[in-house]
Specification:
Structural class of chain A: alpha+beta
Shape of chain A: elongated
Largest interface: A-B, 34 and 34 residues
Number of strands of chain A: 6
Number of helices of chain A: 2
CATH superfamily of chain A: Hotdog Thioesterase
Oligomer: homotetramer
Distance between the termini of chain A: 7 Å
Helix content of chain A: 10-25%
Radius of gyration of chain A: 14 Å
Order of helices and strands of chain A: HEEHEEEE
Largest sheet of chain A: 6 strands, antiparallel
CATH architecture of chain A: Roll
Strand content of chain A: over 45%
């Protein structure tokens, strides 16, 4: 269920129920920016992976259209990070998800994403690890 | 000038002039999603790296606040990708950038990002490769 | 506490506690689009008004930087609409808010907004109607 | 071609070519915020109106999904404002537009919007005033 980029980033994932997903990993030295925090692209990628898994969990192909990311706090090298995606709206042709990125109790970022649902195109992603 | 995450993703970069940046790389097999295209997180990371370099190119520390990404077209494994960041607005305390992500003639994604400028905090990033 | 544009749109508002705001109004015929639903700009304006009140409720001037709006469902002429703003993050220089726009049980739109806080500039907005 | 909300805000509009739109109006006293500038909701509404006209100009019904607004500079009471929408991407099922909001030479705000295109649903909006 993990795609190549998730494996490259050392991420793990589960889909607890249709429309939800949890993705987690560690802020390794190779994922840092110039200031010793997780790179914005790394934190986004965790959120985006959770968004992709949640939106494809209904068995219909979901293609990302637009996303929004708010960076709230810097993170620390070596810390664990997790992204939790929840479904805000599931329509016939589109759907919307919110993702929260946390490291322990700290809320690092919030993410919102919209997908286009290509009815008739099945995906093999489904609930479970 | 390349930070650890940019090196991990095999990216290269230049800052042609203050407020601008260009970041480029190759869509390697390890950066793909489940459908054989560049992962959304990978494309975003190139855009975000260009945004970070452009916004820090004035010598004042710039911290990402909010970003927006629109995915327009799928890309192909093996293709070259480049992100070009331009400054839309430079204020005393904040600044706004637009980034276009292209692969050859195809416009893959557009990105908008806002930073908070911490006047008094210098950065070592500057124009040039 | 209501500004001229809120009065023009017939909106009412309260600030139940610092960092929160509720704004409500009616979808009058003059606020419709060509399809007989509330205009996207009208729904946004309610959300934006709640965002402005919540972000200025601490007594420090808060200036809107970036906002994101997701339209989930169409609304109906004559319906009541309300926007509820909550604070996601309050930093020294910036803050982030989420707003939900509802009409009865229907979630019409979600909004995220970032402000720049001009410490040293006071505002007269405060908690209460 | 002007919808009720546009008339309420005193806006005028033209569609110079399919995929484009220009909307303009005056910052009247009743459209101000508490600080004597155009209300964020008013500036957004002009941008959103241009976005709606541009996206519906191909004769296929276009429904707004997600929008993003960056506020760059404050405006002044009495000033003229115009929003210019251009098409960034036109797909079969979705499309993306950028809007710039200006007052004279000043760039007040930039906006990005995504629509879902309901193929098979016609609209009566078309090019021309």
């Amino acid at each position: 269920m993990l795609d190549p980029f998730m494996i490259t980033l050392g991420l793990q994932a589960e889909v607890p129920a249709p429309g939800q997903a949890r993705v987690w990993g560690t802020i390794r030295p190779e994922f840092l920016n110039s200031w010793g925090s997780a790179h914005g692209g790394f934190l986004y990628s965790i959120a985006d992976a959770a968004f992709a898994m949640a939106s494809n969990s209904h068995g219909t192909l979901a293609v990302a259209l637009a996303t929004h990311m708010e960076y709230l706090q810097a993170s620390q090298a070596g810390a664990e990070v997790e992204a939790l995606a929840t479904e805000v709206h599931l329509g016939r042709g589109t759907a919307v998800y919110r993702v929260e990125v946390r490291s322990g109790p700290a809320l690092l970022a919030i993410f919102t994403g919209t997908v286009y649902r290509r009815t008739g195109h099945k995906t093999s992603l489904s609930a479970g690890r």
